[in-house]
Recover the amino acids of this structure.
């Protein structure tokens, strides 16, 4: 299969040599792949603008013949735009910082290259579209994306029933290591006690219930963001570097 | 792997931007075959640049004194500053001969994934230069890519209430590229056609 074609989101880019760029894609069918965009940093390049972070593209890659297995980089031979999200996102600093965390999280959650991650692809594509169309507050879109992407990766939080014993909620305590809400019997020391409205907001963000989420107030959004950040960092086992630049 | 000194040279060359292991090896063996005088000139050039060249204390451009040539030039106008990412962008814009003001070099662009935030760039130094009211216009000439655009967005928001005209190079500049690769004509046109994105005078 020397040539293959797929829908993809550009996760990140690195400069390579004089005018090339290594581009990391999250594709719909091939999972995460890296390819070289030749000459794309020259302003005469047709591809340059399409191979930028946040872009949703239809890309054709040529499989590289690698000296070492798994080390070969594919070459980008064609790119068409599906969603030009880069422009809207880079022209609003709040969208840019939120969107960057989404790209970094996706890159981290899909750790293996060439392993299909179709749900992660759709979540990210939908998240970036929502972000660029500004239907909702940027940080709500970010938090909703993080919760759902973590859930898809196998770390679904519980904001209703006890995450440990399943005791039906609502409960008053939250513990990151236990996986969310905890009942009075399971509650480990050091658990936090968020406002009931914050629990409701978190549930709505995980479920994609935007009517509830959009109606939430700033105080509960801030508290929810803090819990989502702590939850994400715990299960990703490493800090998301871009998270600290998000303005809350 | 080669014997000590040769491998050391290959390793050092391989750390240079854009030089992969194969190129490093090729350059190393080229140097081995080159006559002593020529290699000495290269060594001298490297030593000189580290001894004599520094970054301008005012604008961040490369300089052979405390201030760079542009900052020292009395014929240039003080009321407009062009903000760029790197010293090499100053060179690209100078080639167009369209711009006769001063520069400010940020030292990069905001890129959260690479851990580069606003505090890592020379932004407070820029704001300090705007404080005395001399500067009337700031032209944001960061790269026409996502990071450059986001940096321009951040800066224009920061300068929104300072009574300064903030403009961005015209969108005729191809998106996704590095500023340094733009040809003089295109870049010159982008300057002429720059659009005002903030002005609250
Ligand atoms: Zn329990
Ligand atoms: Zn200077």
């Amino acid at each position: 299969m020397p040539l293959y074609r797929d829908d993809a989101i550009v996760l990140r880019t690195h400069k390579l040599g004089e005018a090339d760029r290594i581009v990391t894609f999250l594709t719909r069918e091939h999972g995460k792949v890296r390819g070289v965009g030749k000459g794309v940093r020259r302003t005469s390049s047709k591809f340059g603008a399409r191979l930028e972070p946040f872009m949703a593209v239809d890309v054709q890659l040529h499989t590289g013949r690698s000296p070492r297995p798994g080390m070969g980089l594919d070459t980008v031979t064609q790119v068409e735009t599906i969603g030009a999200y880069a422009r809207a996102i880079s022209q609003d600093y709040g969208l840019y910082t939120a969107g960057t965390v989404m790209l970094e999280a996706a890159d981290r959650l899909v750790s293996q290259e060439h392993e299909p991650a179709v749900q992660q692809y759709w979540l990210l594509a939908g998240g970036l579209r929502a972000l660029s169309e500004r239907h909702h507050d940027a940080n709500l879109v970010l938090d909703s994306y993080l919760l759902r992407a973590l859930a898809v990766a196998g770390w679904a939080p519980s904001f209703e029933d006890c995450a440990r014993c399943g005791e039906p909620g609502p409960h008053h305590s939250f513990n990151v290591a236990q996986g969310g809400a905890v009942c009075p019997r399971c509650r480990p020391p050091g658990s936090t006690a968020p406002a009931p409205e914050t629990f409701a907001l978190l549930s709505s963000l995980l479920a994609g219930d935007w009517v509830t989420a959009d109606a939430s107030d700033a105080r509960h959004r801030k508290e929810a963001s803090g819990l989502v950040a702590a939850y994400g960092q715990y299960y990703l086992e490493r800090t998301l570097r871009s998270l600290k630049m998000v303005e809350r | 792997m080669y014997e000590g000194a040769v491998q050391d040279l290959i390793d050092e060359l391989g750390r240079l931007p854009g030089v992969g292991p194969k190129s490093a090896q090729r350059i190393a063996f080229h140097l081995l075959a080159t006559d002593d005088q020529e290699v000495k000139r290269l060594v001298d050039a490297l030593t000189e640049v580290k001894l004599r060249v520094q970054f301008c204390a005012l604008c961040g451009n490369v300089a052979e004194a405390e201030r760079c040539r542009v900052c020292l030039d009395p014929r240039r106008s003080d009321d407009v500053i062009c903000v760029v990412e790197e010293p090499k962008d100053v060179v690209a814009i100078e080639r167009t001969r369209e711009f006769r003001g001063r520069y400010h070099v940020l030292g990069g662009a905001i890129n959260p994934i690479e851990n580069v935030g606003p505090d890592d760039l020379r932004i407070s130094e820029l704001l300090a230069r705007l404080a005395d009211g001399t500067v009337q216009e700031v032209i944001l000439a960061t790269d026409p890519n996502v990071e450059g655009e986001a940096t321009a967005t951040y800066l224009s928001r920061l300068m929104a209430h300072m009574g300064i005209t903030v403009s961005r190079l015209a969108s005729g500049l191809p998106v996704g590229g590095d500023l340094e690769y733009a040809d003089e004509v295109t870049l010159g046109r982008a300057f002429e056609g720059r659009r005002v994105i903030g002005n609250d005078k």
Notes: Helices of chain B lie at 4-14, 21-33, 36-52, 69-72, 87-96, 123-130, 146-158, 184-192. Residues B 56, 58-59, 61, 67-68, 70-71 surround zinc ion (ligand 2) (CB under 6 Å). Chain B touches chain A through 29 residues (CB under 8 Å).
